[in-house]
Amino acid sequence: VLSIIVSLLILTFTFYLVISKLYNLLDRPIKKEKVKDRNKYIDFIFYRHPFKCMMITTLIVSIIYLIFYYPGVLTYDGKWQLNSFMRYWTYNDHHPAILSAFMGLLFNVGTYLIDNNFGIFLYIVPQMIINSLVYGYVLKMMNKMESPLALRIISFIFFGFFPYLNINSITYIKDVMYYLIFLFLFLYQYNHFEIDKDINTKITIKLILLYLLLMLFRNTGYYTGIIVTIFLSIMYLIKKNKIYLKALGLCLISILIFNTCYHKIILPFFNIKEGLVRERLSIPFQQTARYLNYYRDDVTAEEEKQILTLFTHDLDFIASEYNPYRSDHVKSQILDYPTNEELKSYFKAWLSMFKKHPLVYVDATLNNTYGYFFSEHRNFIGEDIGFYNTSTNKYTNVYFNSSTENGRNILQGIADKICHTKIIGLLYSCYFYMWILIFISIYILHKKYYDLFVYFFPLYITVLFAIISPVNGHLRYLYPVMVTLPAAISLIFYKIKNTKSRA
Fold first, then answer.
1. How far apart are CA 445 and CA 454, in angstroms?
2. How far apart are CA 219 and CA 228, in angstroms?
C-alpha cells in the first residue's frame, strides 16, 4: 500500500510539473511571422491557398487508396445497413434508417448499372469529396484565426497522410460522414457566432440543416444537438444576445420537430422498427453479468425471476457470456423489444443486487471503459489500424480486385508499422486524444474561458457516449474528438490572442 501511495504522489507531482510547463508555453505571446521571412512553399500552402492545398491533397490520397481498395471498404455495420434496407435483416433504426435508405438506393442504382461493387463506389465517391472539402475548410479557418504555423503543419500532415483517416475516407460506414459533419458544424458555428459575428437567416438555415444531418448520420447526433443548443442558448441568454438566442432557438425547435416526425410518422409509415433498447443499456447489463460471475450464490429466487423477465437464457449462461471489455455478448441475450414492465422488473433486481455488492458494479464499469484513458490499451482488437477488409455475404457480394493486392498489402503494412512505432503509434490509441482533451479543458477552465468550454460540449458529449458504449477503448466512438482536436486547439489560441488584445 505504501509503495502505491508513493508512486501516486510521484506521478501526481510529475503530472503537475508537465501541465504547468505546457500551460506556461500556451501563455507565451505568439510571435507573428513576417511575410518576407516565410518559405515560399509554406506561404503558398498555409497562408495563400490553405483550402485548396488541403482539399487537393486529401482527395489525391483518397483516390490512391480507392484505386487499390476499389470499390471501398465495406464494414460489418455498412453491410448491416444494406441488408436491413433490402429487408434481408430486420429493418430498424439501430443505424439511422434514412441514411440506410440513401445508402441502399445508391447501392441498387450501382448494381443495376454495373454490379454490387459499383453500388458501394457510388456512396464512397461523394464521401471522399466531402472529406476533402471539410479538411480544406479546417485549414482555411486555422489560417483565418492565425493559428500557430506548427499546429497548421501538424494538422495538414494528420488530415492528409494519417493512414487511419485515409482508409476512413473510403470506408462504407455511417461514422465517417458523421464526424465530418460534426467537425464542420463545430467550426462553422463558432466562426459565425464568435469570429465573424454575422448570424442571419441564411446562416441559421444552414445551421439547422447541419444539426439535422448530424441526427441522420448517427442516432447520438440528436442528443448532441439538443444538449449543445440548450447550453449555448443559456450562455447567450446570460449575455442578453437576442439574435444568437433566436438562431439557436430555431435550431432547437427544428431538432425537436424533426425528431418527433421521424419517430412518429416516417418510421411507422415505412414499417421500420425503432432501435433496440439493449443498445442503450450496455453498462447495467455488464454489471449484472459480472455480478453473476462473482456472486451467483447471492442471487435470490425473486431476483432471478426478475432478471429472467428480460433475459432469454438462464443465469449461468449469462455469466458465461461475460466479456469485461465488450458487452455485445451479454446484450444479445435480452428480448429485442421488452415492455416497460419487463424493464422495471429487471431494474428492481439490478438495484437489489447493487445494494449487496456495489463494488462489483464499479469494477464492471471500469473494465468496460478504462481503455479510453489508460496507456496500455490500443484501439479495439481487430480494428487497431482501421478497416482494411471487406465484410460481405450472399446478399452483398463485394470484393477487391486481385490485381491490386500487392498495393493493398503495402498500404496496410505502412499503417501497421506506424501503429506499432513508439510515440507516433499513440495516434492509434484512444487515450492519446482523451488526455489532450482533458488537458486543454482544464486549461480553458483555469483561464476562465467559460464560453469556449460551452463550445467544447460536443466533444464532452462524444466522450460520454464512448464511455457508455458497448466496447472498451474503441477509437471509432472517439472519431469526432480525434478529428476535431486540431480545430479545438486553434480556438484556444484564437481566444488567447483576442483576450490579450483586449487587455
1. 11
2. 15
Kindly state the DSSP code that residue 172 receives in the 8-state scheme.
E
pLDDT for position 33:
60
Of the candidates 452, 378, 365, 358, the one whose C-alpha atom is nearest the C-alpha of residue 421 is 378
Say how far apart CA 203 and CA 224 lie, in whole Å.
20
Output b/e per residue, 74-83; b: 16+ Cβ within 10 A.
bbebbbbbbb
**Chain mean pLDDT for the chain:** 91
| pLDDT above 70 (res 170) | yes
Other CB atoms closer than 10 Å to residue 456's CB: what's the count?
20
* Residue 74 parent element (H or E): strand 73-74
Distances 368 to 86, 264, 364 between C-alpha atoms, Å: 34, 34, 6
Nine cell digits for residue 371: 481503455
Q: At which residue does the C-alpha cell 485549414 appear? A: 139
Cα(343)–Cα(251) distance, integer angstroms:
33
Residue type, 59: L
Cβ pair 208, 251 in contact under 8 A: yes
The helix or strand, by DSSP H or E, that contains position 85, with its residue range, turns out to be helix 76-85
- Kindly report the number of other CB atoms within 10 A of residue 423's CB atom: 6
Residues 256-312: tens digit of each pLDDT: 999 999 999 999 999 999 888 888 888 999 999 999 999 999 999 999 999 999 998
Taking the alpha carbons at both ends of the chain, their separation in whole angstroms is 49
Cell triple for residue 315? 443465469
> How do residues 447-492 score in pLDDT, each as one tens digit?
999 999 999 999 999 999 999 888 888 899 999 999 999 999 999 9
Write phi, then psi, for 425 (nearest 5 degrees): -65, -15
Residue with cell 473510403: 170
Task: Check pLDDT > 60 for residue 141.
Answer: yes
pLDDT > 90? residue 123: yes
- The predicted structure's pLDDT at residue 3: 78
Is the pLDDT score of 381 beyond 70? Answer: no
- Residue found under cell 453473476: 292
Distance (Å, whole) CA 209 – CA 254:
9
Q: What is the dihedral of CA 110, 114, 116, 119, to 10 degrees?
A: -20
Burial state string for 484-499 with b = 16 or more CB within 10 A and e = fewer than 16 = bbbbbbbbbbbbbbee
Q: Does the global pTM surpass 0.85? A: yes
Cell 493493398, residue located: 408
Distance CA 55, CA 6 (A): 51
Cα four-point dihedral sign 17, 20, 25, 28: negative
- pLDDT tier at 333, thresholds 50, 70, 90: confident
Rg (CA), the chain: 24
